[in-house]
Amino acid sequence: MAKRTTPMNLSFIMIFMIVLCASNMFVCRGEWEPSWSSKAAEKAEAVAAIPCSGHGRAYLDGLILKGHDEPVCECHQCYSGSDCSKFSSDCAANAGSGDPYFLEPFWMRHAASSAILVSGWHRMGYTYSDGSYISELLVKYIKNVHSIVGNAITEGKYIIFGSGSTQLLNAAVYALSPNSSDSPAKVVATAPYYPVYRTQTEFFNSRDYSYEGDTSLWKNKTDSNSIFIEFVTSPNNPDGKLTRGILEGPNVKSIYDRAYYWPHFTAIPSPADDDLMVFTISKLTGHAGSRLGWAIIKDKAVYQKMLTYLDMNTMGVSREAQLRALKLLDVVVEGDGKQLFQFAYSTMRDRWTRLKQIISKSKRFSLQKLSPQYCTFFKRQRDPSPAYAWVKCERQQDKNCYEILEAAGINGREGSLYSADNRYVRLSLIRSQDDFDILINKLKNLVAKE
């Protein structure tokens, strides 16, 4: 016989339902409604909806002018006005910086799935519950992304986070150097190379290591008692070529900067399995401002030394940066994990194709030579899609290519910054579509004058 519901039991059930419906997460009538987060969400969407004529962006943390209640539009290069609608044709093309705005349209299309709202009391302590500064869930997501892409082996290795790859580069130099001022490690790289390797090493001015120039100076001299630390960038910045270390011997340690080893910028011939590899979210998702990078390390002792460096330096990466990275990578691995990479590759391939078409008509300028290559991620032959154009001025009298392009309204970066000849200039292809279109028009005009 079924037990009859008493008035007391009925009253208890009704009180329980009222309490449930009055909680922070309203679930009455099968619906969920936000409470404390609603105003923050409304404000975020309102600011994101400010159009800025499609040539700029408004941000929650942007400047608010007196008498206004909304942040101002921050305009793209060559655009101005309160709504970024005024274009200046006399403005120079910004092809110098490596801000990866080319991925912005992808994230705007995935606004809902990539958005995140953080409570005011989110992880206020210094560490996670396990006492570390590293989100174990984010580590799992990073390993999953590498597994999907097939660009790095993570099994049996250690992963550590840094404030972008920049912090990790010096942490790696520190970890690989001997604790001896009598025989400091020699830090080297092969030109053309990313200038931070030299400038950062010289800036910290450590007794345990020193910058010693190009690897070509030491190719047959690694049998000395000195430790050599070779920076290897693959794909290389600035020319986009896949490279390997040059120095050999028991005293040679390598730091592989794999920032651009993603299907956006290069074919993935095989997963990298180097002893120490550095990646960054800025060139994966485009979020350079989040300042999050990671190193994949084979040797436990090296991992421990890098961990000590980072603990003493910054006590880890901000919890908010790790949370945002987690949300972004959750979008990256959605479905078959190819949406971001297909968008990024097609964008960069098309930009490279347009650039090549213009430079091919010139006898004054040339580009680096890159060939189609089989990619294990796309499972087919793919055309080149480098992050940067490495432009050379071919005329004998054009000894400073940067000045030649600058006079034509194109701002790039001098070859000497990369320890190369000033007949070379690096042009960034990863900025916004506005930036790229302006660059293309300036180059067309320059080539047409030959």
TrEMBL record:
Residues 94-447 form the Alliinase C-terminal domain. It comes from the Eukaryota. Residues 35-91 form the Alliinase EGF-like domain. Its cofactor is pyridoxal 5'-phosphate. Residues 1-21 form the signal peptide. GO terms for molecular function: transaminase activity. CDD domains: AAT_like (cd00609). InterPro entries: Alliinase_C (IPR006948), Alliinase_N_sf (IPR037029), EGF_alliinase (IPR006947), Ethylene_sulfur-biosynth (IPR050478), PyrdxlP-dep_Trfase (IPR015424), PyrdxlP-dep_Trfase_major (IPR015421), PyrdxlP-dep_Trfase_small (IPR015422). Homodimer. Belongs to the alliinase family. This is Uncharacterized protein.
